[in-house]
Structures are given as structure tokens and as C-alpha cells.
Amino acid sequence: MTTDATVKARNAASLGRVRRSAAVDATAVVIILAAAALLYVLFPGSLALFTRMVAIMMLALSLDLVTGFAGIATLGHAALFGAGAYAAGILASKFGFTDPFAMLGVGAVAGALAGIVSSVVILRGRGLGQLVLSIAIVQLAHEAANKLSAWTGGSDGLSGIAPAPIFGLYRFDLWGRTAFILAVALLVVVFVLLRVIIRSPFGMLCRGIKQDPVRVRAMGAPVYGTLVKLYAIAGAVAGLGGALSAVATKVVGLDSLSFTLSAEALVMLVLGGVGKLFGALIGTFVFIWFEHLVAAINPFHWLTIVGVMLIVVVLFEPRGLTGAAEALWTRARGGRR
């Protein structure tokens, strides 16, 4: 009887956790959709900017997977984003396959392959060594894209990308409405899938590796293989973001493979909160929107202002904006009680 009662209690607790997680996921999706609807209505002339934000959000989500949940230090994640962007662009401009979903799919596959190749190199190092290796990878990718100008357009960029209408009905208009709606739909799907992955046994194993890889290895779990798989998933997400950028902007430049983009993605992640997924979305939105506003107000010193903002956030709230929001929510609930 005691055993049956224990099993029932465990099942009830497990069911409760599943329901809470589902409620959190549903709330996050509602917030994303509500924010997208407000932006669509209030800022119809800035939809191209918001679509760009969503593409970078996928890069930040991908980075959060490997850094926030597995503890892999990297400053070369733009190589995965750029791989997806160039793969989608080359598919359309060189081979004439302009279906947007085909471009997105090829971009995700290219990003996953780039992630696997990158992980084989980066995982050989530890700590600072991983950072150096990741920087070398993104610099090599940047130089390769520059030299292969016949395929990539080199420093002039890859142009001639003309995605076909979605389902043959919805054209990619000048205002960016179609691209924005597609971007939001992709973001919701990717976000929910990543939430499921991090709660799965595979995701828990990745968290365990971040905490103590030696103990996980001693338990017989494949540490290296698990991290390579995680990097492949992260690469697919980043590649999808790159492909989305190619579809929306119809051009791919060397900046999609730059060290600067890698560093900015890490800054966005730290700003929003590492290891939270939702923090990657908030950090990306705040960083790009703030950058856009400040650059318009002061085009000569906007980087200084952005730098001051980042210093303030890191010093006073190391957990990022989502950490600050969680702390305020906890205090508010405690005050009510």
C-alpha cells in the first residue's frame, strides 16, 4: 500500500510539472503572438526591422542552447547562421529553387552540418581554448565566403534571391508583411520545440554535462556525442534564422558570417538572461531596438550609449532582464502573501 501511494504521489507530481511547463509554454506563445500583433499594427513601416530581429533571435536561441544549457564557450556562432543564409541564397540564385520553405529547409540542414563540423573542432578545447577555436572557425568561414565570390558574391554580397510566393498566394511585398508573419510563425514553432527539447531526458543530460561532465561520463553517458548532437540542433536553429534572413532581405552579405555578429549575439543573450530561452528573445529585441533608436538620435556616439547600458545591466542584474523580471515577480507574490 505504501509503495502504491508513493507511486501515485510521484505520478501526481510529474503530472503537475508537465502541466506547469505546458502553461508556461502557452503563456510564452501568447506573449510572442500578442507582441507581434502589436508591432504589426503600431509599426507597419518597421516590419523589415522586426523580421531581422526574429532572424537574430533564432541565432540567440541557438547560442543559448550550447552556452546556457551545455556550458560551451563560443564566439563563432555566426558561422552557423551564415551557413544557413548562404545555403538558402545559393539555392535560389544559382539553382533556381525559390520556394521559401525549401530555402528554409536547406538553410536548417546547412546550419546543422556546420554545427557538427564546428563542434568536432570546438569540443576539443576547454574554456578559453574553446573561445579561440570558435573565433578561428568564424574567421575561416568569413574568409572562405569572401574568396568563393563566384558562389557567394564575395564582398559585394549574394544577390538575385527572389523567393516565390508562399503556397503560390502570398508574395513577399515591399513592406515586409508576408516575411514578418512567416518569421513569427517560425519563431513560435522553434521556441516550443526547444522548450520540449530542454525538458526532455536529452536536455537534462546536457544540463548535467554543464554541471559536472566528469560525473556524467563516469555514469556511462556519452558526453562528447551528446554535445555534438546538441550542436547539430543548435546549428539547425541558427541556420534557419540565416535562411529566414536571406528570404526576407533577398541578399546575403559577409556580415552574416562576421565575428561581430557572433559577439553581438552573445551580448544579446547575456542582456536577456542565459539559460532561459525567453531571455534570448527579450535580449535580442531590447538590444536591436535600443540600437536602432540610439543610432537615429546620435549616429556618432550610439555605441558608447549601448555600451553603458550593457555595463549597467551586467553590474546590477547579472541574470539579465529576465532575471530581474523574475525577482520582481517573486517579490510581488511575497508581498501579496
From TrEMBL:
GO cellular component: plasma membrane
UniProt cross-references to InterPro entries, sorted A to Z: ABC_transp_permease, LivM-like
GO terms of molecular function: branched-chain amino acid transmembrane transporter activity
CDD domains from the UniProt entry: TM_PBP1_LivM_like
Membrane-topology descriptor: Multi-pass membrane protein
Subcellular location: Cell membrane
Keyword match Membrane: yes
Transmembrane segments: 21-43, 101-123, 179-198, 230-253, 265-290, 296-316
Cross-referenced Pfam families: BPD_transp_2
Keywords: Cell membrane, Membrane, Transmembrane, Transmembrane helix
Name assigned to this protein: Amino acid/amide ABC transporter membrane protein 2 (HAAT family)
Lineage: Bacteria, Pseudomonadati, Pseudomonadota, Alphaproteobacteria, Hyphomicrobiales
